[in-house]
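Task: complex structure prediction.
Instruction: return structure tokens for all chains below.
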Amino acid sequence: MRPATAGAPLLELEGITKRFPGVVANDRVDFDVRPGEVHTLLGENGAGKSTLMKILYGLYQADEGEIRLRGEPVTIESPSDAIEQGIGMIHQHFMLVPTLTVAENVALGLPSGRRLMQDLSPVQQRIRELSEIYGLAVDPDAYIWQLAVGERQRVEIMKAIYRDVSLLILDEPTSVLTPAEVEDLFVTLRQMTDGGRGLVFISHKLHEVMSLSDRITVLRGGRVTGRTVPSETSREQLAHMMVGREVRLAPNRSESDVADARLAISALEVLGDRGTPAVTGFDLEVRSGEVVGIAGVSGNGQRELAEALAGLRPVASGTVVMNGVDTTTKTPKEIRRLGVSYIPEERMRDGAIGEFSVAENLILTSHDLPPTSRRGFLNFKEIETGCSDLVRRFTVKTPSLETPTSNLSGGNIQKLIIARELSGEPEVLIASQPTRGVDIGAAEYIHTVLMDQRAGGIAILLISEDLDEVIGLSDRIAVMFEGRIMGTLGQEEATVQRLGLLMAGVSEGEE
Amino acid sequence: MSDFLTVSVLLATLASGIRLATPFLLAALGETIGQRSGVLNLGVEGVMLLGAYGAYYATLRTDSILLGILVSLIVGGVMGIVYGVVTLALKAEQGISGIGIFIFGLGLSDLLFQKQVGTPTPIDGLGDVAVPLLGDLPWVGEVIFHQNVLVYVAFLLVPVLWFVINRTPFGLNVRAVGETPEAADSLGVSVDRTRYITIFVGNAMAGLAGGALALELGIFQQNLTNGHGFIAIALVYFGAWRPSGVMAGAMVFGLVSATVLQWKTLGIVVGTTASIVGMFPAVLTILVLVLVSRRTGQPSALTRPFERGH
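Output:
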């Protein structure tokens, strides 16, 4: 922790307003960055952080307001303008071309002069030098598709350093990194600010914000709702500023009666999309009244595991027994009929149909069963009452049951899916990333619902990349790495550090 | 069959195979550069027809083959600008607008032919040019170095295009734009400008491919290209989006077509058999595409329009 650097601001945004049809994404926002500091922009999804930064990077144009760099007003109409002004941006999703090498990705868009031939050797040379200076291990000749996500993130940083940006915007740069990789990233970022660069850090992860920031500006609903520094605030206060009310960050866990096994997986092997094993030698048991968490960096077999359990992906070998019945080769429908519910990680792809109304999505799993339908006809009266009841019970905010689901916010769509999945009173729940991308309020509510279900005796398998969530909700935590369980920790012994090592593929005692 | 298996006939068949491969190769190379930047153009056939008619008509009126070649390039380039505006500025669906270009080219070339020429009048086609020294080589000289000038151009374009795609800053932009346009845009590379250039060049080459066909045959008629453009698109997939692979595919087609022609000429196949054998190139297209249905090398952003901020 260091005092905020004094001095003339590198960047000033003044009175930035951006309207989209029906919504004001940024409402007279003021924001500045001084040389050598990390200024965090904190807020929920939809608070307007990304919009503000896209305006700064020339991806959007502001309707009102002024951008000043080193005191001079500038207009930024495209990313090329931003690059010319020394602004770099690390986007939420990697902006890398997988089929090109690291050096080619770095060289892309660099002024080539009048030379006909591309000579990459000076680029490769410079990348090696910068790797040394910043401790960024990247091989200039490797292809991006060969790299793990942590390495890809280093290439993104390298692109910015190579261009010698004076201002770097980082939009949620840690979402795919292990805790150890996050630490390394922060060291590099500190090295960058020591050289006098200014950094804008966009995040909603409170502990990261507290550890990295010099100053913090909080956005809610497009407006600035707070400005502070880490030494004068706490995670709870920040959450309050983000949401606008008191928030419980840790869910209430009560004792629950753990009974017999409801989900038993043994020697499971599942193939990934490319036909190579994604899950191998996987054994796990979840008992009723118990939450078992699966932690891990995304892409280590979690998605394939969830899909295999739900019957959406064939099992290569091994067995899955749910509620005492072997479901290894059963269809998704047969598995559901056995009292198994599934909250998929891709809400809008696998969880709900955007064009369908709220009511239609709520009956997706029960439309062919009484009382929703009888003798092949839908019973609209029953659907109306049943769905109104679910919407009320699970506090889904929707104008009506007929509203197209895609019009709802992410948090409300997720509540809708959870309402549907729990309406059949399941005995096993497979919940994949249940709060990813939803606002803090909805996440808090979803955690409460999951804890209630646990107390009610459901067996819950919780797959999540959010370590706070896994630690907060689970009775036991299994860490997945390259399709296997690297280790299992009980609730009391699980810490971010211990889980982080397992997530990086380091087994206990190997350190 | 013994008539076919003589040195002189085999050499003639090989030479004619290379000549027949040329229009395929020119069109497929043009399609390759467009697809590498993420743009699918199903209208190649239509552009070829317009290019063929343009070359034929210009040569018919002026007796200048050079002018004919130039006109086919210009006609193709103009069609490229049209296609670019439709798919890049107006963001129309690429598959559908390509079919539109095909039907437009098919109809317009025939209409112009009927109105301006009416009765098929042959023109003096492209003559063979022997390459000095190399043309004197036994066998090889006869097969490879006694061809018309467009054959040399087409085959020289293979290494040229490889170099442009893999060894120039522009080629790097093309590859990036075809795979991950968002990444290219975020680094200040203009996605639309890159694609306009590749579409322009690609269509000019399709126009030239049509011109090559008309000038080799010395004639124009309705639907002269008879599927060449569509096979050229298939060849891009066959060649896994690489110029050398595309060349290999074009050669296979040229040689099979030449062999079938030779068999018919020699009377090895007659009547119904000849018709069935005549289908070989088409059957081959299907077989080859089924067998090499791997998609490795396909640009990820193929057919996907780019819009900033999405």
